[in-house]
Amino acid sequence: MKIKLLLVLSVAFLLFSCSLLEPKIKSSSLSSNEKMLFSRLVALGDNIISGYQSAALVEKHQKRSFVALIAQQGETPDFMQPYIGYPGLGSESYAGFGILRLKYLDNPETPQTVNPDPVIYAEAFSDYGYDPAAMAFSSEEVMYWPLPYNNLSVPGIYVDDVYKATIRLRSRSKSGLLDVILRNPLPDPYGYKTAFAQAKLFQPSLILCWAGMYDILSYAQYSAINPVEEPPTSKEDFAQYFSELMDSLKSTQAAVIVANIPDILDMPYFHSVPGVVIDTVTNTPALDDNGNPIPLVGVNEGDLILSPAKIFIKQGYGLPADFPNSNGQPLPDDVVLTPDEQAVVKDLTEGFNAAIDSICSLRNIPVVDMYGFFKEVANGLQVAGLKVTADFITGGFYSLDGVHPSDLGHVLIANEWLAAINNHFRVSVPLINVMDHLEQLQYSDSLLVR
What is the model's pLDDT at position 185? Predict the structure, then answer.
């Protein structure tokens, strides 16, 4: 039974998490108006739109981000992003690590497991001679690119940072990637400029903006590096900030399109750890004398256990006192999202999205319904005869951090944006043929023993 299950999971993983080749446009099918619309494409926002994936920003995934795919379909000339060298910068970089990698779908060191026992690790800077203090970018060409980047989105920033923040220390979010991506001070005439100010000087023809998710995610997500001690952005403040941002974008005279905010509680980051003790031999729930699963200490009914809780459980937190390796301490509150906290997340998401709809409607700015699309994924989305889900690792849509989409996820997101662009701006830019991507999948070394 276990062999059959692993075979199914392995096939699903290989189909969905392997690298996707970039599509190539052999000959132009675009009109002059369509080429003009995409000629100076700019992207602004936070995590997903930047191409952040598997806990890091790194060139190989930035080149497969939905923004890059849209630029390819629209034939944007000289499209440039702040490509970060391997293994990338992200949530593990404070400890000298970059992107997450899957070493095993099922750990061979635990041969008696009934359920798969994945092993995920972060790539060490030292293994690649990578020193972000000396050169974070993938090349000097990227670092010294004489213009602002086409994609000025910054992982980990709040909505107002898009048009207010020039450097990390002068931002509300204190995102460490602000200084890297904005490169302040740039040579004249750019100087100390915000992401929006750099985009405006670029004289964009089309602006893609997806901001506001991190204003909620920062509240719900555990962070060992930069714990959030202040309340999340209020609905009133968000409406003010977003309104000011949209007015700023409209002032450029560019075509503008934005997206609303997904329900982050659907993401596998919040569902991949069960609230019960797991038998380390079989990787199934441990049972009490009555045959019932044993709850983790510090977990109550309705709680969601965050993905980083796995680290604490391995250290003995949350295990009953009579269990081996128990340290007698409950699971820390920081890795448990209570029903009250979940209600805050849902209320903020609804409030932010209502503000986005209202503000954009008044300004005739189209909104891509990413909230609805991510719900479709959570319910299971049929793609090219295959089912894409929100399951961790094997669902295909999410990367290894359980929050940000995979390469395949970005293909699907790109088509949602392209359809909205075509509909609102009355153009006919071809959608991406997902089947072409599936046919171009390569075997990934993420399942190989290193």
Answer: 82
- Nearest residue to 42 via CA among 257, 260, 243: 257
- Given 3-state DSSP classes, what are the helix, strand and coil percentages for the chain, each rounded to the nearest 5? 40, 15, 50
User: What is d(CA 188, CA 325) in angstroms, rounded to the nearest whole number?
Assistant: 59
Angle at 349 between CA 218 and CA 263, to 5 degrees: 80
137, β-bridge pairs = 84
Rounded Cα distance between 99 and 89, Å, is 7
Whole-angstrom Cα distance, residue 13 to residue 60? Answer: 19
Q: Which of 115, 132, 65 is nearest to 272 (CA)?
A: 115
Query: What pLDDT is attached to residue 385?
Result: 84
Q: Answer for the pair 418, 432: CB distance below 8 angstroms, yes or no.
A: yes
Cα dist from 218 to 206, 227, 259, 296, 351, whole Å: 29, 9, 19, 25, 16
Beta bridge partners of 382: 387
Q: Residue 186 forms beta bridges with which residues? A: 191
User: What whole-number distance in Å separates Cα of residue 47 and Cα of residue 44?
Assistant: 10
Left (φ > 0), alpha (ψ -120 to 50) or beta: where does 127 sit? alpha
Residue 285 phi/psi, 5-degree rounding, is -60, 130
Q: Average model confidence (pLDDT) for the chain?
A: 90
pLDDT at residue 9, as a whole number: 36
